[in-house]
Amino acid sequence: MRFQLLPQACLLLLVCFMTWVVGSLGSTASAGERTADFFGRHDSGSGHTNNWAVLVCASRYWFNYRHMANALGMYRTVKRLGIPDSNIILMLADDVACNARNKFAGSVYAEAGRHLDLYGENIEVDYRGYEVTVENFIRLLTGRVDPSMPRSKRLLTDDRSNIFVYMTGHGGNEFLKFQDQEEISAFDIADAFEQMWQKKRYNEILFMIDTCQANTMYSQCYSPNILATGSSQIEENSYSYENDNDIGVSVIDSYTHYILKFMEGINKTSQTSMQDLFDSYDPVKIYSHPGIRSDLFRRPLDKTLITDFFGGVAQAEVFPLQDIVGSSNHHENDSLPPTSQKPNAPSIPVVSTTTVISPLRLPGETHEWDDWRKEVRKWTSIFVVGCLVSWVSFVR
Amino acid sequence: MDTQPAFPVLVCLRLLLAVLPLPGQDLLKHDHQLSSPLTSYLRLNEGLWLLENNINPYTGGAFHHSPLLLSLFSTIVPPLPIIWAVSDAVGAWALLRIWRARQGLSPQKGTRSNAENLIVSVYFLNPYLLLPSLALSTSTFENTLTLLALMFASEGKVSSALLAIAFTVHLTPSSILLLLPILMVLVSSPVSYLASPRPFHGNLKRIPILFGEFTLYWLVLVGAACIMAGGSWDWVRASWGASLALPDLTPNPGLWWYFFTEMFDHFRPFFLMVFSVHLVIYILPICIKFQHDPLYAAFLLVGVLGTFKAYLTLADPGLFLSMISLFPEVHGYLRHPIVTTLLHLHAALLLPLQHVLWVSEGRGNANFYYAASLVMGMAGGAGLVDACWAGMRIAVGDATVWAEEKVDGEKGKGKAIWWEVVQQ
């Protein structure tokens, strides 16, 4: 009786076997793909060669301490990740650190324990006080500045620049209040970005804004390569994170606080992507719903590195020592094999362990000051002088 | 050699100073009054170290010494303090021999007079000369070579004198001021004719020949230096060019540095030319005016160098002050020796004080030191002017002697008026 089912059993086994074979073949193909995907993930392919940051705090007065701290916290992060002061435009009212109400004069803190002074001695504020106006901001972005404007206050970007634009202050539905006097609207910003695109003044822009109803501010953008994120959606306020009891006011906003906390884990060589940053948004903790706009952004977010916007791009190529020193330099040791960096990969500091006993010389310099030639020359010159002296003394 | 008690004693003392470890020697080496960037021992050592390590010392811009000093100190002897002591002794010996030649005495014997002791003491114990020598500044060598040139010229040894002055000019190009007086001494005599001036009695036609010989020796030295430097000419720009172009504005007691710290760049070449020409314009007038006594002319030009040189140190006015002892005949005719002495004392006290106030303590500024260097300039100028005056006044003579000479007839009437004129 059981043997009558044998052909069916064999067929079933055959089918199972075939399935397994096909399945295993299929999974090795996807493993190869996964491998390529894993390695290819770090090829960001953004095509930028330099990074700029425009950090704007659009409010003034003591009670807007947290907006100043927001901007200064972003400034510190961006500087720490490698963007130099020359590539950062910091626009602050700057009336907080030396305010008469500041118990800790000359310092601005972003957390309640006052562990890290963001003001310090080494910050460079480009537009301060009453220079932070809508007109100056739009002129800065579009490049239509007065000829007398110094270079440090211009946005000298080109079409390979990635720009991080951060704005904070009091805002509303498609507007942002500048210093209690005027407003900039989402349309103005969108048009400014379009002018920049037309004039080839950026490669990609990350626009981040922390105000009430912030997401409305990027709703009107229409230029390509803009990635935007905001702290709260329409009809929603953004809230501050905490107060410091000795300073007496709120010291940081929630959204910016969590972004800065995320950034503390990033360094210059980090491979963390923008998608990871956006995944870290927690509307419960932030007390508002942050938004992301990536439809104008051509690259996938999980392949866009944080350091593409927040960090400075530094290229490093290591040449073996033989190329620098002349071939007569016979004291050198072996050098590391040259590691060439892909142009868009984040720079990894390469420490060369070669030790050169004799000092490096400029290429093209002759070998006159080498050992035996030098000795010959020294003694020859002494000999000439000695001959002269003895000839004069004894003959003449 | 000679039987003076002072010379051997002082030489022994000086050698002792060189051999014993003195407490403040490092301070002296760093002092800006005693050595300049062109003469500093520290820079000499740096050049020697760079040479040892196969680096061209002239690429750095800090080394301004001649390549011959490099080759000397890296082959025959290292730069030990004993060399400076020996150089001091040779300089004092040369000064003594110049004195003997001028007085017409035999070079070996001299006299047992106190004058010779005084001359040797004035050279060894002059703080303006002793301190730079203890600071191991190469200005000691320059002074010694200058004195050797004057010695050989006074004794009539033509080639030795020209070789010595060629060496001096090779080390400091400003010493070219002394070439014409030395040539004049060679063709005439070093004996004092200050009191009775007469037209130059030497054979002027020999001077171009001697100049040609000097140029020959100088070219050989330049060639030796080029051999040392390996055929490149950057040592010329570094050593001679420094006196002309003033690349290093380290403060010194001279008058140039402050002027050029505040100089706009487009005026710099003009004023460098003016300052350099200022040195050169003294040659002809002094040599013409003192053609009857070219050794005195050389002395005055040493004074000019000691006040207006590019990178002045205390050793340069020091040589001038020590050489005053060679000319005792003019001492009575100096109008304000006390003023000169006091100015020098003033400057010698102010210069280190203001330097410390400015550089070390930071309570003063460059103007303080500049004022002290102006006092030094005044002191040098006062000494120079006084020496010029005395050299000419001695020719006019003693007032009483003049009055006695004019006894004849009609001159007797004018005698009283002349007496009053001369009295002034």
Automatic annotation (TrEMBL), chain A:
UniProt GO MF annotations: GPI-anchor transamidase activity
Pathway(s) where this gene product acts: Glycolipid biosynthesis; glycosylphosphatidylinositol-anchor biosynthesis
Keywords from the UniProt entry: GPI-anchor biosynthesis, Signal
Keyword Signal among record annotations: yes
Catalytic center residues: 170, 212 (nucleophile)
Region of interest (Disordered), residue spans: 329-348
BP terms from Gene Ontology: attachment of GPI anchor to protein; GPI anchor biosynthetic process; proteolysis
Signal peptide: 1-26
Biased composition (Polar residues): 336-348
Signal keyword on record: yes
Entry GO terms, CC: GPI-anchor transamidase complex
Protein's UniProt name: GPI-anchor transamidase
Organism for this UniProt entry: Suillus luteus UH-Slu-Lm8-n1
Taxonomic classification: Eukaryota, Fungi, Dikarya, Basidiomycota, Agaricomycotina
From TrEMBL, chain B:
Its membrane topology: Multi-pass membrane protein
Organism: Suillus luteus UH-Slu-Lm8-n1
Superkingdom in the source lineage: Eukaryota
Biological process annotations from GO: attachment of GPI anchor to protein; GPI anchor biosynthetic process
Pathway(s) it belongs to: Glycolipid biosynthesis; glycosylphosphatidylinositol-anchor biosynthesis
Family per similarity comment: Belongs to the PIGU family.
Classification via InterPro entries: PIG-U
Signal sequence interval, chain numbering: 1-21
Keywords (A to Z) from UniProt: Endoplasmic reticulum, GPI-anchor biosynthesis, Membrane, Signal, Transmembrane, Transmembrane helix
Principal subcellular localisation of the protein: endoplasmic reticulum
Record's GO cellular component terms: GPI-anchor transamidase complex
Cellular compartment(s): Endoplasmic reticulum membrane
Transmembrane segments: 76-96, 117-141, 161-186, 207-230, 270-288, 295-314, 334-356, 368-392
Protein known as: GPI transamidase component GAB1
